[in-house]
Amino acid sequence: MLLSVRKVLAGVVCFVSTETFVPLISLDTFSTSIDFYKAETPSSEVVYLEEGVKQGLGLIYYGGQLVEWGVGAKVIQPAGFVFLSGVEGRDPETNRPVEGVRAQTRLALDKIKDRLGKAGTSIENVVKFVWYVARRDDKDEFIRSRDEWLAENAPKLLKERSYASTLLLDVGLALPDMLVEIDATAVILQNPQSS
Q1: Residue 37: how many CB atoms within 10 A of its CB?
Q2: pLDDT in tens, 92-137
Q3: Which of 94, 114, 115, 192, CA to CA, is 20 to 30 A from 186?
């Protein structure tokens, strides 16, 4: 199914999960057109937003089962962006990775939350995560730890899955004991009530 989002004036920003869409984007000075093929989702409704508000693009179901990532997010004319470098679960006091996937995941997400706050936004305003997990066998523990942390610190983000997401497994990270690294991109919204 082809779903099209069009806005007469430029300013539509979409972040789409790599698991679900192949974006076909064309931009010119008068309009923004974003067409993408929709994965198996329960609704094909297109919702237009006011400026400075972030919205999830929906949940994804495969074989009738809800998966752990969402379609992505869209923002109309954000006030700005924050692009964080990869964040790892390395203890700042010892410069060594903390022990285990769960501890590294939680520490990395704590650091992301802190860095976004210092940059003038919040974890709820993340529009893109790239998750790096060094060992495929740690995938389930990583997802449980991530979702547990999000439930405690960003319940709306977890419920809506209002971010694009890419999970990479079996990747070589900077240190042998590093098991998790996370990239995050967030928006700074014009409407502070949305943060």
Answers
A1: 12
A2: 899 899 999 999 999 999 999 999 999 999 999 999 999 999 999 9
A3: 94
Length of the chain (residues): 195
pLDDT in tens, 56-65: 777 778 788 7
Question: Measured between alpha carbons, how far is residue 188 from residues 57, 77, 142 in Å?
Answer: 18, 10, 28
Tell me how far apart the alpha carbons of residues 90 and 191 are, in angstroms, rounded to a whole number: 34
Q: In 10 A of CB 89, how many CB atoms?
A: 26
CB-based contacts of 129, cutoff 8 Å, min separation 6: 163, 164, 165, 166, 182, 183, 184
Q: According to CATH, what is the number of the domain 80-194?
A: 3.30.1330.40
Residues 6+ apart with CB under 8 A from 130: 165, 166, 168, 182, 183
Averaged confidence pLDDT in the chain: 76
With the CA atoms of 158, 159, 163 and 164 taken in that order, what torsion angle do they form, in degrees rounded to the nearest 10?
A: 90
The percentage of the chain sitting over the pLDDT mark of 70, rounded to a whole number, equals 71
Question: pTM score, two decimals?
Answer: 0.70
What's the Cα-to-Cα distance from 98 to each of 73, 89, 104, 111, 160, rounded to whole Å?
A: 32, 6, 6, 13, 30
